[in-house]
Write a structure and sequence with these properties.
This protein has helices at residues 14-21, 25-37, 51-59, 91-108, 129-140; strands at residues 41-46, 76-83, 86-88, 112-114, 153-156. It has 159 residues and is of the alpha+beta class.
Length: 159
């Protein structure tokens, strides 16, 4: 009995495919590459936002600004990982996905960051990306701004 699933077992759903079509092509390429190399079943739950959705997200505290954001222009995505058909919220799973997305970004040579971390994953030196998150949280403890880390959020790094 194998505990590792075949990456081909979990293609993007029709809904995820529709969201991919509205994203910046570079971000879509990274996600498609990641899908090819991971054994995690991840799907896209949010991509490009409408102006009204962006305003609602800002009003509810989900977005830092009410007008423009990486989501508004298709440069950001939120994903969800499923394990045995159930949504998974474990940080380690999202760190594993971030590591896979790092390799995908390297393969297609596209800059991408994980959540509110400003590090381009292609150049992250940590093998364990949780350590990168720990350092970011510690460095933000003496900052007036709220540090809000969203483990299922990936964003293009524009050069």
């Amino acid at each position: 009995m194998s505990y590792i699933d075949n990456p081909g077992d979990f293609p993007f759903t029709e809904d995820s495919e529709e969201k991919l079509k509205k994203l910046n092509p570079d971000l879509a390429n990274v996600l498609r590459e990641a899908k090819e190399i991971t054994d995690l079943n991840f799907q896209i739950v949010e991509g490009k936002r409408s102006a009204s959705t962006q305003e609602k997200m800002w009003y509810k505290g989900e977005a830092p600004e009410d007008s423009m954001s990486a989501h508004r222009i298709g440069h950001a995505v939120k994903v969800v990982v499923y394990l045995d058909g159930q949504v998974c919220f474990n940080w380690n799973i999202y760190a594993e996905l971030a590591s896979c997305i790092r390799y995908a970004a390297q393969n297609v040579n596209v800059g991408i960051s994980w959540s509110t971390l400003t590090t381009d994953l292609r150049f992250a030196k940590d093998d364990n990306l949780i350590e990168l998150v720990d350092r970011a949280v510690k460095s933000a403890t003496h900052v007036d701004a709220t540090f809000m880390f969203i483990p299922n959020h990936f964003e293009l790094v524009l050069e």
